[in-house]
């Protein structure tokens, strides 16, 4: 049954009404839509399509239940109507259930296999789900029916994506065959010819590709792409000299493109890392001549930053330390003299891509420190590190006099030194360097921005926000600083201040007319500002303990991702119709969802999982162990300082206000509901009834309705998909995948499926072992992640052990055979003086009432394993940074709610103790950091002052805690502060 | 891509040509770029250390924060916010900012009193950037301003009595003369006395 059939059921005179009805829904004019559908349903009470469309209209208005009911009813009237199925699919796509949408579309296609609309929608869903072979089939049907440009591009792209380049080329050739001189737009010819060469290149038919490019050169409008592709082909055909000329040409357009540089070097016959003296001399001379005004390459880049950096990138820093240092000194001098505030970003590239980062950092550190002190003492750059050009770096400096430098020179040098220290986790050192620079020139904004960054890494989020605000106040016209200042305030929990800074954008006076009625948060949602919700979530969770609000914010971040995805799907059709090449469509289809790999989205989903697990636990234990609320209460009782008091006061009064407001709101809501119902009866609901965030900013309703475990499962899937999407897998991704397995096990435990849990847990243990079998230097950068993964796995195992014991399930699921479980359990046992069972262990622990010792026990158990020591050492060097997350997972995962509570109380008691020789100011600062970061589990980085771990001071308050801390000190290496 | 060029100071970046009457609160009017005339060029020539490293501007509502930071770093007295707010109620050219490598390093703020006296409220140069004639440039600038406005008869200022280097600067380089000594001028400095110096431009 086709679309036309659904109309044929109506009488002639009513067909115009039907048409109007459909267009009114397309225009989102629901008032008229309701009117028309009422009329139609009166005459044809069993007209399924009308019902379905009416349901869709309700769906658009956010009334999902009514929508679904009507859609089901409509479908029941006529289960063979393609139109009804299609409408159902549109509805599912609207509520972002793309799987169901695809099912519906396919069903619709069954009854009407040639409908273009349905085929188009099906193809979109296939792109969403990466079903490339099916996509080719769908696109072929569309193509055969209506061979216009859009169909051709779609068909060619589908073939190319599915890997059938042969077919794609054939199709492209026949499409190009339809081109007519003077009729076909120039852009299209240009795009298609380039794509033809690209396809040939993919099929490794380089000669033909080159021929295509050379024959069509006059028709190509995108000359840069042409040159790039042409040079690439020459390179692949081993015609290096010609290729080199091409890359020089490209470099003259853009001297900062890394790819051009890399290819250019290859054409010159240089390896990616120059090991021999001969090669490195050639490399240095090459770049020296590129930077000189005249050279044989015909391209001069005297101001290019890349040209300063490239030689460093291709050197072996271990075997050629002196040359590295000289080149670095030359580059640093040039950048400081020029005054480049992004000086660190430039060198960070070199550090990150270095094969031996420690060595590189060491070399850079020596030079930069030496130069800095020279500038400070006699305001001149040491002669030893002065070179006239890149070539001069090949031998020791011949300069004899130190070079006098501008007063602003030191600022950039210090900026570099500070960032280098920050990169090496010496955050306190970074702050002190930047403070001295600020003292020198307080008017340089970048210094304050850098200080805010370092303060954040140091764990003092309040001071970080103040610093960022200082930068913002110095240039209020700078939107970057505005957003950053707002973000830093929100991050440290001072939401009100952050919002007031943000108000420059959210102020109704600055908005478009139709959006003036939105609340600031809703406005940010409309603007798709994911950072705002992500930061709000972290801010309210860690600094205020408002779980519901945090969850809501994280959910909102996810919704923004969905919205953007929806927009992109909408854009696909447009891209096909208006595009002049296949490539953009192809890339968009392949990488459509890749924007969700951004930190904001991924992190939000991780936190959603954590919160959902916690809330689920809270619901199951009837709120007995909600650490966060206790914490929140504690905050209100112990305001850190006057500001905090004021804030608390404002929040209190505000709490009062919203109550009255919420009453008002409620009454408003009630009114709205009544109106809605009335409208319902009349069939004229209003457009503005669409649900908005202000209804439930604290997430109370959200939590009530939410099926936590199901959401966790969904989010685990989501994260798994993202991991699969990454083009390059890092070690971190492997760790994350193990963590996901652990979470999967936890989900199974919550679902009471012990077998599944055991299966996943086993997989996790295996995965963790595999991760730790890597050599230490490879693991180094990911020590933090690995550490968290360990903690997570251990907590899940512990939980599982405890439950297995309670339920008398044998630990080794393989029927008595020794398994990884028994292995891990053996480790626990050896540490705890052989308790007979996990239950005994927990009871002993409970009798000690010492949660911390459990934590340390986990630590110890990791240390016991000889192979782990390196990893643990690395992790411990940043131990304070992980404290938060560490406790967090503990509180959450393990059945230790009571102990967690004890722990928090003890911790607060402990925090009250004064450390000897501390000024009251220092004390307050320490307290602030302690309260806000460590025990709330901020991802950002608390530094516990070493003095806090003085057992003799603590013993008076809590002997057990002191003992535990002693154990801790024994296993932890001296903290950085002491070594500084 | 990594920023290769340090962004130009906003002066060069945004050139707003004003044709209508100037509304100082309007967002569009953040910056006015004037063509330097001969006197201005002459004043700039005295700056040492490469003229291309310097740039010049006037305070705006958006960058007043930087000026505040500069004044707080250089002066023993700290001005309240109204000091900066008031700058924008007067002719904005009565204040001048000097940037060195895009950082604000010197500033002068003046006001007109009795319709005929130009009073220098503050003149500041960051310590590391002194000895580069930035102060001299600022004085030349304000003398040029006074010369161009025929209703102005003299320039005058107050200087803390122990600050002899400043007194010499005004007296020797710009021919200022001492008018009187005011006792108890400063409320929060010791000694609290100051000299009033003046330069007669026209009778």
From TrEMBL, chain A:
Region described as Disordered: 642-691
PROSITE patterns, sorted: TPR
UniProt keyword list: Repeat, TPR repeat
Lineage: superkingdom: Eukaryota
Start and stop residues of the TPR repeats: 82-115
Annotated SMART domains: TPR
Species of origin: Blattamonas nauphoetae
Name assigned to this protein: N-terminal acetyltransferase A complex auxiliary subunit NAA15
One Pfam entry name: NatA_aux_su
Basic and acidic residues composition-biased segments: 642-660, 668-678
UniProtKB/TrEMBL annotation, chain B:
Keyword Transferase: yes
An example molecular function term from Gene Ontology annotations: acyltransferase activity
Domain N-acetyltransferase: 54-202
Record CDD domains: NAT_SF (cd04301)
EC number: 2.3.1.-
Taxonomy, superkingdom: Eukaryota
Keywords: Acyltransferase, Transferase
Keyword Coiled coil appears in the UniProt entry: no
PROSITE patterns in the record: GNAT
InterPro entries: Acyl_CoA_acyltransferase, GNAT_dom, N-term/lysine_N-AcTrnsfr
Name of this chain's protein: N-alpha-acetyltransferase 50
């Amino acid at each position: 049954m086709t679309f036309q059939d659904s109309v044929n059921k109506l009488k002639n005179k009513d067909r115009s009404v039907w048409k109007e009805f459909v267009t009114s829904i397309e225009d989102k004019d629901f008032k008229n839509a309701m009117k028309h559908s009422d009329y139609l349903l009166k005459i044809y009470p069993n007209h399924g399509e009308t019902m379905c469309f009416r349901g869709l209209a309700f769906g658009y208005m956010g009334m999902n239940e009514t929508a679904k009911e009507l859609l089901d009813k409509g479908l029941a009237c006529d289960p063979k109507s393609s139109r009804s199925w299609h409408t159902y699919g549109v509805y599912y796509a609207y509520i972002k259930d793309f799987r169901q949408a695809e099912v519906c579309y396919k069903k619709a296609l069954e009854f009407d296999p040639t409908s273009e609309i349905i085929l188009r929608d099906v193809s979109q869903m296939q792109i969403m789900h990466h079903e490339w072979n099916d996509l080719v089939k769908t696109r072929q049907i569309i193509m055969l029916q209506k061979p216009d440009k859009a169909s051709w591009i779609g068909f060619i792209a589908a073939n190319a994506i599915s890997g059938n380049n042969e077919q794609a080329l054939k199709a492209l050739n026949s499409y190009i065959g339809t081109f007519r001189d003077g009729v076909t737009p120039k852009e299209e010819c240009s795009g298609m010819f380039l794509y033809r060469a690209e396809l040939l290149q993919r099929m490794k038919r380089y000669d033909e590709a080159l021929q295509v490019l050379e024959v069509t050169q006059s028709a190509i409008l995108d000359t840069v792409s042409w040159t790039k592709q042409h040079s690439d082909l020459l390179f692949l055909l081993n015609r290096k000299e010609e290729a080199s000329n091409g890359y020089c040409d490209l470099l003259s357009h853009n001297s900062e493109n890394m790819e051009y540089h890399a290819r250019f070097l290859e054409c010159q016959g240089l390896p990616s890392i120059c090991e021999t003296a001969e090669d490195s001399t050639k490399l240095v001379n090459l770049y020296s001549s590129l930077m000189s005004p005249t050279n044989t390459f015909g391209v001069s880049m005297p101001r290019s930053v890349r040209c300063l950096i490239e030689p460093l990138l291709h050197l072996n820093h271990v075997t050629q330390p002196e040359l590295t240092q000289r080149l670095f000194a030359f580059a640093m001098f040039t950048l400081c003299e020029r005054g480049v505030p992004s000086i660190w970003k430039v060198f960070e590239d070199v550090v990150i891509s270095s094969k031996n980062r420690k060595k590189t950092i060491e070399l850079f550190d020596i030079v930069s420190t030496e130069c800095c002190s020279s500038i400070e003492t006699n305001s001149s750059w040491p002669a030893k590190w002065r070179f006239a050009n890149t070539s001069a770096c090949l031998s020791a400096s011949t300069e004899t006099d130190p070079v006098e430098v501008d007063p602003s020179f030191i600022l950039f040098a210090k900026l570099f030194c500070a960032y280098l220290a920050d990169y090496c986790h010496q955050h306190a050192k970074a702050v002190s360097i930047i403070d001295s620079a600020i003292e020198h020139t307080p008017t340089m904004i970048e210094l304050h921005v850098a200080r805010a960054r370092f303060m954040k890494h140091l764990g003092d989020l309040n001071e970080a926000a103040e610093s960022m605000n200082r930068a913002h106040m110095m240039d209020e016209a700078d939107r970057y600083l505005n957003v950053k200042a707002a973000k830093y305030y929100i991050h440290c929990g001072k939401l009100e201040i952050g919002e007031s800074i943000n108000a420059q954008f959210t102020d109704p006076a600055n908005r478009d007319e139709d959006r003036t009625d939105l609340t600031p948060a809703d406005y940010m949602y409309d603007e798709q500002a994911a950072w705002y919700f992500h930061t709000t979530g972290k801010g309210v969770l860690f600094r205020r303990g408002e779980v519901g609000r945090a969850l809501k914010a994280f959910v909102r971040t996810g919704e923004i991702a969905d919205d953007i995805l929806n927009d992109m799907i909408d854009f696909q059709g447009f891209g096909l119709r208006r595009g002049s090449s296949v490539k953009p469509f192809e890339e968009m289809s392949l990488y459509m969802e890749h924007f969700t790999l951004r930190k904001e989205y991924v992190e939000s989903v991780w936190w959603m999982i954590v919160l959902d697990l916690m809330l689920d636990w809270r619901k199951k234990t009837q709120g007995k162990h909600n650490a966060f609320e206790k914490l929140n209460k504690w905050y209100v009782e112990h305001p850190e300082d006057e500001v905090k008091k004021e804030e608390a006061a404002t929040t209190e009064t505000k709490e009062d206000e919203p109550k009255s407001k919420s009453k008002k709101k409620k009454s408003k809501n009630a009114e709205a509901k009544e109106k809605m119902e009335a409208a319902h009866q009349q069939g004229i609901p209003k457009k503005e009834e669409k649900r908005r965030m202000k209804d439930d900013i604290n997430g109370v309703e959200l939590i009530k309705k939410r099926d936590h475990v199901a959401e966790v499962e969904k989010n685990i899937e989501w994260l798994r998909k993202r991991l699969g999407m990454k083009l390059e897998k890092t070690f971190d991704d492997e760790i994350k995948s193990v963590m996901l397995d652990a979470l999967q096990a936890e989900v199974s435990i919550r679902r009471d499926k012990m077998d599944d849990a055991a299966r996943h847990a086993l997989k996790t243990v295996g995965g963790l072992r595999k991760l730790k079998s890597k050599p230490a230097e490879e693991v180094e950068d990911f020590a933090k992640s690995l550490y968290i993964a360990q903690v997570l796995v251990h907590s899940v195992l512990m939980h599982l052990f405890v439950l297995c014991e309670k339920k008398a399930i044998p630990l080794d699921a393989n029927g008595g055979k020794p398994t990884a479980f028994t292995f891990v359990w053996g480790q626990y046992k050896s540490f705890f003086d052989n308790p007979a069972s996990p239950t005994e262990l927990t009871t002993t622990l409970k009798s000690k009432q010492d949660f911390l010792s459990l934590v340390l026990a986990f630590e110890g158990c990791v240390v016991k394993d000889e192979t782990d020591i390196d990893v643990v050492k690395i992790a411990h060097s940043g131990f304070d940074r992980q404290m938060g997350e560490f406790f967090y997972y503990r509180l959450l995962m393990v059945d230790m709610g009571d102990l967690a509570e004890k722990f928090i109380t003890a911790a607060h008691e402990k925090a009250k103790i004064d450390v000897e020789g501390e000024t009251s100011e220092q004390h307050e600062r320490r307290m602030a950091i302690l309260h806000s970061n460590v025990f709330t589990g901020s991802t950002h980085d608390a530094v516990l002052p070493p003095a806090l771990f003085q057992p003799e001071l603590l013993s008076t308050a809590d002997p057990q805690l002191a003992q535990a801390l002693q154990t801790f000190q024994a296993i932890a290496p001296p903290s950085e502060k002491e070594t500084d | 891509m990594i920023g290769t060029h340090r962004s130009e100071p906003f002066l060069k970046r945004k050139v707003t040509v004003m044709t209508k009457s100037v509304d100082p609160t309007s967002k569009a009017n953040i910056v006015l770029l004037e063509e330097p005339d001969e006197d201005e060029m002459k004043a700039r020539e005295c700056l040492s250390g490469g003229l291309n490293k310097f740039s010049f501007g006037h305070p705006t509502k958006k960058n007043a924060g930087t000026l505040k930071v500069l004044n707080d770093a250089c002066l023993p007295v700290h001005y309240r916010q109204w000091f900066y707010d008031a700058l924008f109620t007067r002719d904005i050219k009565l204040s001048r900012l000097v940037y060195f490598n895009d950082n604000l390093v010197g500033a002068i703020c003046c006001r007109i009193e009795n319709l005929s006296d130009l009073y220098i409220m503050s003149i500041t140069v960051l310590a590391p950037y002194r000895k580069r004639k930035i102060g001299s440039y600022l004085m030349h600038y304000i003398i040029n301003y006074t010369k161009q406005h025929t209703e102005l008869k003299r320039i005058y200022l107050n200087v803390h009595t122990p600050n002899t280097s400043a007194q010499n600067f005004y007296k020797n380089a710009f021919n200022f003369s001492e008018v009187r000594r005011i006792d108890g001028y400063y409320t929060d400095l010791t000694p609290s006395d100051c000299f009033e110096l003046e330069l007669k431009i026209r009778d």
